[in-house]
Amino acid sequence: MSGRTIRVALDATAIGRGKTGNETYLTGLLEGWKEVEPEGVEMAPIFSGPSVAPNPLRGGAMEGWQAQSKQIASAGFFERHLVGLPKAREELKADLYHGVYWMRPWEAEPFVLTVHDISFAVHPEWFRPGEALFYTTLIKAAARKARKVITVSEFCRTEMAEKWDIPADKIETTYEAARSLFQPGKKKRGGPPTLLFVSAIHPRKNLGRLIRVWERLRADRFPDLRLKAIGPAGWSAGSDLRALKAAVAKGGAEWLGSQTDAELKEAYQTATTLVYPSLYEGFGLPPLEAMACGCPVVCSKTASLPEVCGEAAEYFDPTSEEEMAAKIAFLLGNDVRREELSRAGIAKAAEYSWERMAEESSTIYRRALEG
């Protein structure tokens, strides 16, 4: 393929559908792509009629893609992946297809597949009955058939290679980044200290333990401590959602649900610290976004988080409420350490960029067609 411009059809149908992780990844990839315009590779995104957001072809990050993109009708999962996307790819006359999680495993034409993590395969207990098996069967088969598999951390790359017996050199890591809107703001002056939790509510996000730790800290050294939770109720929210609603009813806690980007940025900029107690992450964007805003981060020392956050965060065992409480209390009582983490976090977040990810993706596309 050397010397010839290749066309890549990208499944961007998650944009505008409220699929937070996939939507952020795709939006970042396309924004980065427009900035660097990698030589020799033409990106042709496929959008779908949005269900919860404005048309992605009108303004914003997606402006300018009309000439080389397709828009398919909003449809259910099977119609979208078995009919709409294959037809759009054919009409685009693409050399390569880039799927995100979902791909027909029997596909004859060359494709690459992004798999953010395989939590459904290693922790099926976090998913609804039959869901984990369905995900594992379909995505594993597609990953094995793909020319290249793209993931977002070395943690995920190693886990996928070991658990699914995929050659490590077939899997490529492209790190995500905090979007450019996340920047430091004015420091919070006065008022009670606030712990910030940002995530969809789901068993692996470990919100229940954080609520118990927050209640313990309020009963002990920090009676004015606030807890602010941002994010929608995910599947199997169950006991964590009930615990959050009970904390809100007692006072001192807020659940703000989904927020605009501007509101989320303000929350990062004004919180005393972001606490991210997740039991499993393929990458972990909220800590990086918080760092970009100068918010000190204390998070789990599991999965990808130490890889992504490096020395710019404090860590705890997410299964130990005692250790979590001790690390949060340490930060709350140490202005100097919070300032150190704020500066280190801003520098760490600046190491990641969507432009670099776009460049790396273009290289992977070429390797996929040359292999």
Low-confidence stretches: 51-59
Multimer state? single chain
Q: Order of strands side by side in the largest beta sheet?
A: 3-2-1-4-5-6-7
Percent of residues in β-strands: 15-25%
Helical/strand content category: alpha/beta
CATH architecture type of the largest domain: 3-Layer(aba) Sandwich
Largest sheet: 7 strands, parallel
CATH hierarchy class name of the largest domain = Alpha Beta
CATH superfamily of the largest domain: Glycogen Phosphorylase B
Number of helices: 13
Instruction: Report the principal-axis shape.
Output: globular
Radius of gyration: 21 Å
Helix content percent band: 40-55%
Q: Output mean pLDDT.
A: 91
Order of helices and strands: EHEEHEEHHEHEEHEHEHEHEHEHHH
- Number of E-type strands: 13
| N/C terminus separation | 10 Å
Account of the 3D structure:
This protein has two domains: 6-177 and 353-370, Glycogen Phosphorylase B (Rossmann fold, 3-Layer(aba) Sandwich), CATH 3.40.50.2000; 194-349, Glycogen Phosphorylase B (Rossmann fold). The strands form two sheets. A seven-stranded parallel sheet has the order 3-2-1-4-5-6-7, with helices on both faces. Strand 11 (273-276), helix 9 (285-292) and strand 12 (297-300) form a beta-alpha-beta unit. Mean pLDDT is 91; it is low at 51-59. It is built from 13 helices and 13 strands. With 371 residues, it is of the alpha/beta class. The longest helix has 17 residues, at 20-36.
